[in-house]
């Protein structure tokens, strides 16, 4: 029997101006549903963002529809593959922002930092006068980051403006190189820094995912794996499946070393959350995990197994 073709996993975002994003939601969801595509897409007045998975033909059909939306003809997407479905359902959501920064006056369409191709990134961050900033959240940084990068230790992207303002004097006059998973957070963070008066700002075009796809491991400055917002949890060089899993109690990534800890129990707790959950909570998680395993044994999906995706790229 011929093995089924791997699923195509497509990450995309595009800043444009949608006068009425609510009017776009129904037709977009209809195309995704008809094509049996799963994942999450966000629509806002500032554009579209998300990750979807399905057959190659199905993804092509959805992308063709998206490119008919106002200002989206030049939309660029990034592909990887998965052997098992990384999403269990399809959601098209309306949002205030397609990536939440909480700075309503920041408009990436008015200007962002300089784009740096993955092939040129090493030369930039190797320069002694370059300050490299990881714009992702603290739990993402723990999975992997570029050597020497500053970790702002933010819990959410909306914390980044306050972090910058607290460190403005240290960054003034520096060459700033910023990066994130797929590029969208850097569109806003570099636009924000420019609005705050920092001019020499650069960001990694296509994000970490494009770097891991294109730069050979022997030339890489990347350490660890890259957290992704689906059931793969993390990927490595060549976008190969990583070694992290997800704690279904606290939704944090868990490394192989952490899974060897006595505080780790699959589906119930990990070293990061074990001491913050009481016995009743852990019992509830254990029952949910049991139901998930029963559903898997029947070949059915169980909502308790799903990773809630947040398509920040």
TrEMBL record:
It is an enzyme of class 1 (oxidoreductase). Residues 126-220 form the Rhodanese domain. SUPFAM superfamilies: Rhodanese/Cell cycle control phosphatase. Keywords: Oxidoreductase, tRNA processing. The keyword Membrane does not apply. It catalyses: uridine(34) in tRNA + AH2 + O2 = 5-hydroxyuridine(34) in tRNA + A + H2O. Its EC number is 1.14.-.-. Belongs to the TrhO family. PANTHER family: RHODANESE-LIKE DOMAIN-CONTAINING PROTEIN 7-RELATED (PTHR43268:SF3), THIOSULFATE SULFURTRANSFERASE/RHODANESE-LIKE DOMAIN-CONTAINING PROTEIN 2 (PTHR43268). Catalyzes oxygen-dependent 5-hydroxyuridine (ho5U) modification at position 34 in tRNAs. This is tRNA uridine(34) hydroxylase. It comes from Sphingomonas qilianensis. The gene is trhO.
